[in-house]
Amino acid sequence: MKRIKASAPAKVILLGEHFVVHGEPAIVLAINKRATVTVEMRNDQKIFIESKNIGVSGFFVNDEFHPQRGGERAREKLKPICAIVKEAIRKYNPGFGVNINIESSIPIGAGLGSSAAVSVASASAIFSIFNPKVSKDAIFKVAFDAEKIVHETPSGVDPAVSTYGGILWYCRSKPIRRLKINVDLPLVIGNTGKERSTGKLVAKVNELRRRYPLIVGKIIRAGGEIVKRSIRALREGDLETLGELMNINHELLRALGVSCRELEELIYAARKAGALGAKLTGAGGGGCMIALAHPEKIIDVAYAIKEAGGEVLVTEKTDEGIIIEK
Amino acid sequence: MKRIKASAPAKVILLGEHFVVHGEPAIVLAINKRATVTVEMRNDQKIFIESKNIGVSGFFVNDEFHPQRGGERAREKLKPICAIVKEAIRKYNPGFGVNINIESSIPIGAGLGSSAAVSVASASAIFSIFNPKVSKDAIFKVAFDAEKIVHETPSGVDPAVSTYGGILWYCRSKPIRRLKINVDLPLVIGNTGKERSTGKLVAKVNELRRRYPLIVGKIIRAGGEIVKRSIRALREGDLETLGELMNINHELLRALGVSCRELEELIYAARKAGALGAKLTGAGGGGCMIALAHPEKIIDVAYAIKEAGGEVLVTEKTDEGIIIEK
Asked: Could you report the predicted ipTM of this complex, rounded to two decimals?
């Protein structure tokens, strides 16, 4: 029986969040925490989708999802996967059904692109079982379209980094660029576990800019300069400078009012334990922080973040986007 | 027996420290903590100088200081006063000696301009006993010259604010301006008690600017915009906006690397207790923070700063510079 397993990495914003909303570039990394989707042929025409991690499953029959486990929550959570399935059926009109099994080690709702990684891995596994030669570009497009269903006007950077891996340069209304940079980036991510609304935080910065256009405008441009300078540091493998730029970036995010005490505690702990740099990553107001550390300091930094109350993920940049195991 | 008592206020930098070194303006306030100097005629030609607060005293005779209490420390501490006495003798050649008694409630070495306040009050009392009609401008000049002996290239803003009181706008290589603003500014100052070197912190920022000229340049200009915007807030008596600008200013100072954990604790405590804004004041790296609060919140903010380990000074802006009591 035909079976395909595909995985796609999570992402982390290294530099430039929020400033990116205002026209400056951001740097996004693929990290080696992955969502894995296994698709296997069935003897019938049914399509069964399951995500054991979040306890949802159901059948997708005749363009309709019928929850088996998780009820309405299953319908909501699996909406992008159903969209991908629908698109695959429309395109390939296969003569068989499939079981789709989703597994992920990526924290959900923490700004690490869990949803995009699942969509990319799903699109990759589903499309590959019907067409082994499907391109990454085609998978990206399908996953991005699926993301549009769940997220309002997503930038596309999350599915792009999950598809292609590595380090992406992203600037609104410009093509996403994959930077050819060969550097190890040992990272520790600390999750505050505090929920936040990206939309509200983006609105908060907009409001601050409306009140203080000249001040906030200059802070945003300083954020853009940080990203530009960071590319040189990345190319030179200069982690000290990169760490320092992360620290400055974080303080500018504080100036925009998007940090919180919980993030500050983890960031302070990481810096004190010897991190080269530490900052919030993503929308702020909760969610995750990220620390860059020399390999020999990783354990110290991870321990310090844990002691300060964070859920820790030791990881590193990965150049592997989609991986397909037959 | 003739006797004159003069006092001069301490200062606090409201906005713009560090940025001011790089050509942007700063706002400096006189606060109602004062240094008081009493000068009384003696029956002999001797000049006796005493500061009970810091436990030093001595005689100034024939252009030489002879410590009575405090030894070399007395010589060092009273150097600017001796310079003022010398200048007064040169100018007025009086036929009598004086006792000069210095008292001050201003914390020393905390960035509150204690030294300038003492110099201004001393110059005021000493010159007034010889010439009751001496002008404030003349006193400022004498005190500023005395400050130059103890501080390397002082800006002159400290003796200016101690002389004239109120709110000063200061920008390097431009004349100091006294802003005509009629607003109550209830302030709580928290002293970390941590010593720091202004020179080292200024050098640290210079070095950061050398490494990242475009980033730091934009942060500095954002700091300048904060000061410009704050003048409107001050004129409108809009303390909410002023507080918010103080907060943003502080985060930019963090971006320059001049804050420290001790300051952060006091600042966080003040903001949490309802301060409209809180920031480090002066060089950073220790020293003092300043919080702006609605009058009904002053006690809460003061208590929170004390609980967080700070030495608290509840104060407010004063429009009174030199005060002379005959």
From this structure: 0.90
